[in-house]
Amino acid sequence: MRWNNKILGKLAICLFLTSGLLGCHGNPTLSGRAAHYEFSIEHGALKMKDGVDLAVTYYRPVAKSPGEKFPVIMEMVPYRKDDFFTLGDYEYGSYFAKRGYVVARVDVRGTGGSGGHIPVSEYSEAEISDAEELIAQLAKKSWSTGNVGMYGISWSAFNSLMTAHRKPPALKAIIAAHGSTDLFYNDVHYIDGALHIDSYAHQIDTDNAMPQSPGYRIDEDYFRNRFDREPWIFTWLRQQQDGDFWRKESLKFKTPLEVPAYLIGGLLDGYRDFVMEVSETSKAPTIAEIGPWNHAWPEYGVPGPNYEWREKAVRWWDYWLKGIDNGILDESSRRMAFMRTGHAPATDLATIPGYWRCSKQWPVEGGTTRRLYPQTARQLVGTPSPQGGVETLRYRAGAGMAAGGWWGEQTGDMAADDARSLVYDSAPLTEALEIMGMPQVRLRVAADAPFYQWTVRLEDVAPDGRVSLISGAIINPAQRHSRLEPEALIPGEPTTLSTSIHFTTWRFKPGHRIRLAVSNAQFPMVWPSPTPGFTRLFSGADTWIELPVVPTQSETSPSCVLPPPEPSDQAPFGKASPGKGPVFESVRNEQTGDSTFTTINDTRWTLYDNTYRSSELYRWDVNDAAPANARFRGERRNVFTISGMEVDFSTLSRIESDDTYFHVTFTKTLRQDGKLVRERTWTDHIPRRYQ
């Protein structure tokens, strides 16, 4: 659940009313449709059964006729609607409100403007139960038609899916972008079952502990409910294996979804697999779209091409919440994925070459599979070697930085990572080959220690030698027989590992080679395994990659054409200021074996007369000769000036490992108007369990 706060588009003309509400007027027409609604922004609360008040911001259309009522679209996240996400929320609240929908933005209990204490973790029973109760209350509002939708990106995609599974009567449909059905394998804590320490873990533990908005009162209730609550990073590190903690709300282990769902993913997002999973199993109608971008909505995600998904979203809501039979379920673009037609490695592309493949169903008609086998001559061929063979790989814990922090974002040339991997190349292709789906991989391996990790990457090697990353996956071998009952490797004994590479599309052009890269490290994406040494890969019938091949189409004759993005209304009561970042840096010292990966970010914005600044620095370190002693350090500082009062809240986290433990320290420091108010440190030594 990564988040970002972005501001785009034009300034709406808004009026501040004496009641404290904000009345807004936007563009009077939309592609020839009826005139937009004016709307107000209202702040209130809804009381839960246990007496806790949850803070709600409503973007509410102004009725054009007496007694006119509107459906409700709800989003619930802990990302602080009154400060961090105010500007970004406005873009979507205004868009849907002007088109006749009440948008209800709710802070999760214990966060932002809501009461109660911070939950035990993400997607707690309290959170999902609150969502059910919120839907029921919103359906009964005097201005509500009784029909409710739920939507969101990342966190709110997750809880939209989870709430929909419970089928609250008033919930008629959802829209989920960048969600997950499997919280252990496909979330931000354990990527593919391997420990991932993400900057998000530090961000959320910092921001959750901020004082309650909008008053930012610092008192005993605040200390008890927020400041003094143990950071979630300790909880996540104590849950290093799959089990009830992760599966309780994971849809993968539940009955198929029965609420209609509009699903959106990105080829450069770590959560993209959920689109295929939900659309293939759901018992209710779905729309599924996977574009070329990162963790973002389709109208602004990078890289493009982008399109105006909100136009289709309104038609989706019109169909399910207003009962308008607009034919949205009959269109040929109900299944849509962007086919990347191949490009050189780059980290700064605004758009990438390709076209949209649209159909009413997946998999694509005429699709086949092609299995390729590694050979000891570093070749990738169509038949296994009858005599087999074996190659040895030295474990270099700092390898993998070229792929970045997770299976997402744009990447440069993979040659540096491949130099520390086993690589197998096909012959140059004589004709184009397009793939769409989740490639399958099987490896026959052995190791000299009870635990290593394997990483597999699918890549494109151009005639000039440049290497583009297409997709990849991690394999935690302890889970090779059972995710619930992990087992150590037996040193020296061969075993077979299997996995799916994350959903991807790509066209291999004539003259290019298909590459399979195999390594034991993907730093800093996953925490390094503790033992220096060697692993072996056996070629033969049990080592292969299988590609999901689809018929090649012409880029000049796409199967669907999408509307361009519309300008977004920009909040008239605030603005973002130039900041720094995010900036990523990777440093590798071949002489010492040290690898360091850092990210820095600084954001600033204003709301009304208040100013806000958030800055952060994260660093990961490992040495090839001592991989057990990997380190992470996180720093984040939020400085808010509210009505002349400065709230300065900072955190410092350290995670250091050895052969058997993770040593974790987290410090919170609160200052008000420059004076120290409270500081507290948590520490724990958490045993390593197959990580």
UniProtKB/TrEMBL annotation:
GO molecular function: hydrolase activity
Entry-linked SMART domains: PepX_C (SM00939)
Cited SUPFAM superfamilies: alpha/beta-Hydrolases, Galactose-binding domain-like
Region called Disordered, residue ranges: 555-579
InterPro entries: AB_hydrolase_fold, CocE/Ser_esterase, Galactose-bd-like_sf, Xaa-Pro-like_dom, Xaa-Pro_dipept_C, Xaa-Pro_dipeptidyl-ppase/CocE
UniProt feature coiled coil, ranges: none
Annotated PROSITE patterns: PROKAR_LIPOPROTEIN
Domain of life (superkingdom): Bacteria
Boundaries of every Xaa-Pro dipeptidyl-peptidase C-terminal domain copy: 314-555
Keywords: Hydrolase
NCBIfam families cross-referenced by the UniProt entry: CocE_NonD
Name of the protein in its database record: CocE/NonD family hydrolase
